[in-house]
Amino acid sequence: MLFEGKEIRDEQVLAFLKGGLSPMERTEFEAALARSAALRAELERHRALLDALEASSDRTVSERVREQIRQAITRRASDIHIVPGARDVSVQLRVDGLLHEIARYRKEEHTAVVDRWKALADVSVMERQLPQDGRTLVQEGGQEYDVRVCFSPGVTGERVVARILNRNGVFMGLDRLGLSADQVETVRRIVGRPNGVVLATGPTGSGKTTVLYSLLQTLIEPGHERLAIMTAEDPVEVLLEGVTQVHIRRQAGLTFPVALRSFLRQDPDVIMAGAIQDLESAEVLIEAAVSGHLALSSLHAPDAAGAITRLTDMGVVPFLVADTLNGIISTRLVRMPCRSCLTEYEPAAADRERLGLSTADGPLTHGAGCEACQGTGYRGRTSLFEVLEVGPDLGRTLRHADNMEQVAREWLARNGITMRDDARRKVKESLTTVEEAARVLPE
Question: Could you tell me the residue ranges of all domains in the chain?
């Protein structure tokens, strides 16, 4: 017969549901259904899939999702959070690092909204028990945005988080990150060396990825010598012309160490790992530096000097840290005062003291709150930086130091610009506020 269970394909099941079979084929299919419980289950699965797709393509649902994306872009949000509760669903935007609720809708509408996001992100609409990750491209206001979407099953329903990246905004260039002129010159020296390890450090959401992409842009900008560059990322945030980018897939066995070791057999000049998450990844990067490659990565560490301790605590041999490090760029994101309501004020004495500011430093400013900043007093973000360059002199000193972190910290204080120094400069230039700098500075 035509419809023996083993011969039935997905398109035939869909054709049955959509009325696309001939009368004879339909009769045979119904007979096969009567014989096979597995086929009946498959039919119901496809029926549910069609229902979900129909619901998610409903004009009202599509427009709701589109409006969520539009509002996020208009308000300069980095993320959209769709959070189901017991009775309704909250839609929140992360603007300048903080979450703001913009809407609520009925719990009964949530499945259709999630399915619409799944259709956009090109993931399975039927999967509701496991996390999923997808992405889509969106055009808005003449700009192209890369939207990375994550789905997480919860007790009250699936949570959706969409990260929005302006594909032009990630490539800021070193001179637009917020680095001082001296720091830009130092970073160019660090990344201009033919081999060694360069790290971007800070907590989650501090701008490490932007720093790494800006370093890569420096290496591929017009006029720079042609380099073979390979990256391992989880996930790939933005596609780079002329760079081989690998998306990490742990379930398939493609981990950071596996990807990095394969790179070393491909004759690269530069390799990048999105993050150092374990000793093996760190060792491969150091091996790459020792064998003549420039290795870039990020690391969770409180500041530049603290990154050295983080590596040795992982188990990296201290003398290898001293011998292979080119430099460490530590960063923190801070909110900028709104330019539309900027006014002079007197901050709390404790905050002034923490930054080492006195009344002699002149009047300070903050945003008083207005319509442009939705009453927050802040609009936009910049970064605080400290850059530790590990040249031959510091490298030799670190190699024989009992406390490498303390030596690096004292060296930076004498010869560079600490993050606290950078915070003071930006507060006095009205690029951030005393309270905001005090909030993010490491203790």
Answer: 5-56, 62-165, 174-440
